[in-house]
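Progress report, Aim 2. The chain analyzed during this reporting quarter is listed below.
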Amino acid sequence: MDYLQPKKEDKFSFGLWTVGNPGRDPFGEPTRLPISPVQIVKRLSELGAYGVNFHDNDLVPIDATAAEQDKIVREFKQALNDYGIVVPMATTNLFSDPAFKDGAFTSNDPRVRLYALQKTMRAMDLGAEVGAKIYVFWGGREGAEVDAAKDACDAIKWFREALDFLCEYSLSQGYGYRFALEAKPNEPRGDIYFPSTGAYLGFIETLEHADMVGVNPEVGHEQMAGLNFYHVVAQALEAGKLFHIDLNDQKGPRFDQDLRFGSEGIKNLFFLVKLLEEKGYEGPRHFDAHAYRSEDEEGVWDFAAGCMRNYLIFKEKARRFREDKDIQSLLAEIHATDPSFSAEPIKFTKERAQQIKNLNLDRIELAKKKLPYEKLDQLVIDLLLGVR
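Predicted C-alpha cells for the chain:
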C-alpha cells in the first residue's frame, strides 16, 4: 500500500536523542550500544524521514574541544548532504548537567542564569549552522520541589528576561528562528513552571517579541495532566502558535513514557492527525519517543518505522472519514439548524446586542434537537477498527 510508505513531503522527523536512546531509564543502565549521529541520519533517510533534530550535546559532547566539535559538525553536515536530511529544529540541554540542578533560566543563582544564556546562544549558533529555523525550549529543570526556596514570580520574570534576550540575539544574528515553548507538568521536577500549553499561550503575550514565539505541545506531557491532546493542539493551531509538535504516546496520567506514536491512544491521535492534516499545519511531524528498552538496534528502526506508519494510517483514515457517506450524512443532520439564523461571527454593536435580546428562542424546542452522538462515535470506531 503506497500510502503507508513515508515520503520526504510528509515532513517526519526524529531527534538524535530519540532513536539514539540507548535504553537507559531511571532504574536501569543502557541495554544497547550508542548509535552515531551519522548512522542515525543514514538510517532515517532510508526509512523515509525528512529531518533530524538535536539538543546541542546530543551532537557535540559538553566537554568537547573546539577541534573535536569542528570535526563532529563537519561529518554531521556531510551526512545530511549525502542522505538528503534536513535539521528543522534544534534545542539546548538545560537539564542534564548538575549546574542546572535547581533550574537554568529560573535558577536563584544569577551565574547559573548567565551560563544558561551562554550555553543557549552557542547552541543557537550550532543550530543555525546546520539550517535549523525552529528553536524549542523545554524547561525540564525550571520548577521546584520546595516552594519556600524560590519566589515563583521572580522565576517567571527571569524566564521572560531570558526569552526576550534570546529573541534579540536571534534577530541580531539574522538567524530567523521561531521559538517554540514546550510544557510539562512534572518530572524531573516535582512541579515544572508553565505546566501546560495553555499556560505558555498566556505567557507568550507578555514577551517583547510575542510574534516570534509559539508552542511545541507534546502528546505525553499533556496527557500526564489528564488533558485531551487534540483540544490542546486545536487551541494552539487556532491561535496561530503551533510552531512545532512532539508526537508520541502515553498510558494515561503517569510518568512520561514516550511510547511509539499510535501504540495506545488510537481515537484521540486519529483526531489529532485529522486536525493537523485538515487545518493547515505545515511544520514538521516530529516523533519525540523511544523504542522499548527491550529492543536491540534493529528494534529501534522498527520503532521509528512504526511511528511514521501509524501516522500515515491515521491520515488515510481521516480521508475515509471525509468520504464516508454515513458519517457525513450523520454530521449534516447534527449540524443542521434553522437557515434563518446566520452562522456568521457574532460581533458586538449596540444594535446587534438589542437584536439578540429580542430573538424568539424557545428553550424547550432547542432541547428537543436530536444529537445522535452514540451512533456517530460508533461509526468512527468501526472506521478505525477496519470494519467500514
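The beta strands are 12-15, 51-55, 89-91, 134-138, 143-144, 178-182, 191-192, 213-215, 246-247, 285-287. Residues 297-323 form the longest helix (27 residues). These observations will guide the mutagenesis work planned for the next reporting period.
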